[in-house]
Amino acid sequence: MEGLPQALLEQIIKRITRLTDLNSLSLVSKLLYTVESENRYSICVGCGLYPAKLAMASLCSRFPNLCKVEINYSGWTAENGLQLDNQGLSVLATCCLSLTDLTLSFCSNIDDSGLCWLAHCKKLTCLKFNTVPGISSSGLFTVAVDCMSLSALRLIGLKKVSSVNWLEYLGSKGSLEELVVVACKGISQYELLKFGPGWMKLQKFEFDEVKGRYKIEQPHDPSHMAQYQYKYDFCCESLKVLTLAQIVTLPEIGLRFFLSKCKSLEKLSLHYIVGIYDSDMITLSHSCSNLRSLSLRLTPLFIGGLEVRDVRTPLIDDSLKALALSCPMLETVELTFLACEPAYPSEISFTQNGLVMLIQSCPIRDLILTGANFFNDEGMKALSSAQYLETLELMDCVATTDTGMRFLAHTPRLINLTLRQCHGFSDHAVTEVAHARNLESLVVEGCRRISLKAVQGAAKSVEYKVDGPGLSGVNRA
C-alpha cells in the first residue's frame, strides 16, 4: 500500500462509505492515516465528544478539509459530560475554513451569542438548527446578516423565535434557495409571507406547524382584506419542492396561494391540512404540468351534517381526475388516510375508480397506499396492467386479499414490494408474486399471515419484521 500513488489511494478511500471501515483503514499505515484525514469531508459527533472543546479542536486538526459537520446530542444525559458550548463552536468556526454545511441538533449549551462565530465560515451555504433551545430571533438575525453565502436554512423545534425580522432581511437579500420551518411556535404561516421577494429564488419550501389534529386554532391573517389580497401577489415560479403540513388555511388564504403560483413545481406534499378544497387541486393541476411527485395525507373532518359520524376526508375524485388530465409527468403518488374506520367507508371521499383513473392516465412508478379502506382486489387487478409501476407499498389496506395479491404477478415492471400490517395476505400469494416478478426488494412488517420462511430468498433484498414498523423481530436475508 505504501508504494501506491496518493491519487490512487484517494480514489480507493472515496469508495469506502462505512465510518468503521474508514477508521480501521487509517490505522493500517501513516500514509493511509494522512490520506484518509485529508479526504474526510464530513463527520457526525455528539455524546462521545468529551471533553467537548478539546475534542473538537483535535477533530478539526486531524480533518482539515471538513465541509459537512453535524453535532447531534440526541439522547444526551449528564453522564455523557458537558455538551459543546459557544466556545467549542468558535473552535469549529475558526478552524474549519472549508465548512459549507452545519447541523446543530439538541445542543443545549449553544445560544445566540455563539452564532456570531459563524461569520468566520465564509463558505457556509447550508445551516440547520434542530431543537436548540437557546436560539432566538436575535440569533437568527445574526446568521442572516453574517452568513453571506447562506442558501439553505432549516429550523426545527425552535421555541424562542418570536419575530421574523431575520426572515424579512433574508427575503430582501434574495439568496435562499431552501427554507424549512418545522414546529417553531412563534412562526405562523402568515408571518412567512414577510419573506416577500425572497420567494422569487426559493426552490424548496417546507412548513409544518405540528399541532394536534383536534387542537388546531383558527388562524388570522392580519394582512387579509376581502376582495383585495395584495400581500399574495409575489412571484414564486422557481419553487420546485413544496411541503405544507398541519396548518389551517381558513377563513383566510394563507399558504394556499402557492397552489396557483408554482408553475415549476415538481414535488408536492400536503399533510393534514384544514382548508384545502378540490378547487385548489384543480387550480394546481392546471398550473403545475411538471408535477412528478404527490403526497396527500388526509384525515376525516366534520362537514357540518346531522349524523354523529358526519365526517369525511376533504378531497373527492374531482381532484384525482384533474391530476390525471393535466399532470402527464406524475410518477410518484402517496395517499395516506389517518383515523379512517373500515366500518365507515364513506369517511374516505376518494373512490377506487378515481385512483385507478389516475394510475391509468399517469406514468406512476411508485405508489404508496396507507389506510386505503376503499382499495380492494379489483384495485389490485387494475395495478396488474400498470405499465410503469415499479414500487408498490401497502400499509393497513384491509380490503385486499390473496386474490388481489396474485394479480401483481402480472404487473410488467414491479420490482419492489412493501407490505405493512396487511393481514389479508398469506404465504402462498406472496411467494407466487415473488417468484413471478424476480423482485429486487421485499419488505414485510407486521403481516401476521406471512411467515419468515415464505419470504427468505424471495428477493435480492428481504426485510422481515414480526411486529409492526419500528418494533422488534427483524430478520434480513
From TrEMBL:
InterPro entries on file: Leu-rich_rpt_Cys-con_subtyp (IPR006553), LRR_dom_sf (IPR032675)
The organism's place on the tree of life at top rank: Eukaryota
Protein name: F-box domain-containing protein
Natural source organism: Urochloa decumbens
Highest classification ranks of the organism: Eukaryota, Viridiplantae, Streptophyta, Embryophyta, Tracheophyta
